[in-house]
Write a structure and sequence with these properties.
The protein has 453 residues and is mainly α. The protein is built from 15 helices and three strands. A three-stranded antiparallel sheet has the order 1-3-2, covered by helices on one side.
């Protein structure tokens, strides 16, 4: 990457980090802190935790498409301003309904797909995968930091202070997008990062992608549901003050990261993806059910560690699988639908977890989460093993004649290891699905020397 690309990628990764921190910092404390608000009960607190997911899921793809018309940076600034307004509403909420409204407004700043589209605009083809990996790391880091820092910051500044911090982070994001990311870029529609309305039906009908979309919905529903009850349980059952939860989460998340690495390596490098998916679903199901019967804080922490080993493993492999299985050239649409399911899961988990907590106590939450994952592991058994395919793309500058493009497509299709191809004249871009184990790289580079392998 050159200096301008590095600066842009770092700025966009930081905006992602600040945005997700603003959403997630309250997760480990809100079920305790919101209990004192007027009208609060477990069901409404659960709704406050997860309602941002409903507005995120509803607006994620539309805002990405809107950015094609009015510009990426404008949509991102609008999204961050909406998030700032939502944070301000939450910071001044004295009743649970106002808090719910504020969280919904926070979620309406749905800029994830627009950020990815802008990332595509400001990076060259050969650097795009690396840039997306950097942004992906920032997303994962935001969740881990939120669990660790949330209780500690809450002890210092309270719930209102956390939301004012979210407000400050969103304003800092606006400064970064305005001054650190260049304006002099051509906003191009790229199907590998931007949702396409024409491809939406194709993606929704794909049974393999549907399984992955439901999997990420269940994963994030389980996380949100558990955090409706876990903070209160640590305080009431194990006498662990909220301020000390940070240390527990720090140890759990650190060791969970270590625990997930072998599973991800076996799934990706050894090609055992289906076996790892089944094992992880079982881990999530069994650990969730056993959480209710833990009698010591160390046992509860160990089971939470098992849960997060499974959670982090799926967080790593599911997007990778979506990228592999997406229709050729339509990865942006597939990832947009995937993200929509992810946020919808957060909403359903918050509402469902709050309702279960209200009517069946914490045991009901653990049992339902566990049984759902055990049932989904059975569904996973009957899924076909995913092929280890890789998406590639390269530009075709100044190639617009249909005959030349058709000839190029025929030449690419004949190369060993090329499993699918799409050439889009409007983008002047070719998209390939390849099996890197059998790919004839020399033949591909002879036809397309500009491709990054």
């Amino acid at each position: 990457m050159d200096l301008l690309e590095r600066r842009s990628v770092v700025a966009l990764a930081l905006i992602y980090l600040f945005r997700m921190l603003g959403l997630f910092l309250i997760m480990p404390v809100i079920s305790v802190a919101a209990d004192g608000l007027s009208g609060a009960d477990a069901a409404l607190i659960g709704t406050a935790i997860g309602v941002y997911g409903l507005t995120q899921a509803s607006l994620q793809i539309p805002m990405g498409m809107w950015s094609d018309k009015i510009g990426r940076k404008r949509v991102i600034v609008i999204g961050l301003l909406l998030f700032a307004v939502g944070s301000l509403i939450c910071a001044n909420a004295t009743d649970i309904n106002t808090l719910i409204i504020g969280r919904a407004v926070q979620g309406s700043g749905a800029i994830a797909s627009t950020l990815m589209a802008l990332l595509s605009d400001v990076t060259r083809e050969q650097n795009r995968t690396k840039a997306m990996a950097i942004v992906g790391i920032s997303i994962g880091a935001s969740f881990m930091l939120s669990l660790v820092l949330g209780p500690w910051i809450f002890a210092l500044v309270g719930l209102s202070g956390l939301f004012y911090l979210s407000l400050a982070l969103s304003l800092l994001g606006i400064i970064l997008i305005v001054f650190a990311v260049p304006n002099s870029v051509q906003h191009t529609f790229r199907r590998d990062t931007t949702p396409s309305l024409l491809a939406l039906g194709l993606v929704l009908k794909d049974a393999r992608l549907r399984f992955l979309n439901v999997s990420v919905l269940l994963l994030h529903a389980s996380l949100t549901a558990l955090f409706v009850t876990v903070p209160n349980l640590l305080i009431q059952k194990f006498d662990l003050p909220l301020a000390q939860h940070s240390w527990l989460y720090f140890a759990i998340m650190g060791f969970a990261f270590v625990g997930m690495l072998p599973l991800v390596i076996v799934a990706e490098a050894k090609g055992k993806m289906k076996g790892v998916l089944i094992a992880v679903m079982l881990l999530l199901g069994v650990s969730s059910i056993l959480l209710q019967s833990a009698t010591y804080v160390w046992a509860f922490g160990a089971l939470l560690w098992v849960y997060f080993v499974g959670f982090n493993s799926l967080e790593a492999v599911l997007p990778s699988l979506v990228s592999k299985l997406a229709p050729v050239g339509y990865r942006g649409t597939a990832m947009g639908v995937f993200s929509t399911h992810q946020f919808m899961g957060s909403f359903l988990g918050g509402v469902g977890g709050g309702w279960l907590m209200q009517h069946h106590s914490s045991g009901g939450v653990f049992w339902v989460v566990g049984v759902v994952f055990l049932a989904w592991s059975v569904v996973c058994v009957f899924q076909p093993a995913p092929r280890q395919l890789t998406s590639l793309a390269f530009s075709l500058p100044d190639l617009t004649e249909d005959k030349i493009l058709t000839k190029l497509a025929d030449q690419l299709a004949e190369i060993q290891g090329v499993e699918g191809i799409q050439i889009f004249k409007d983008e002047q871009t070719a998209y390939l699905k390849v099996d890197k184990k059998t790919l004839d790289k020399e033949a591909l580079l002879r036809i397309a020397p500009q491709i990054a392998l």
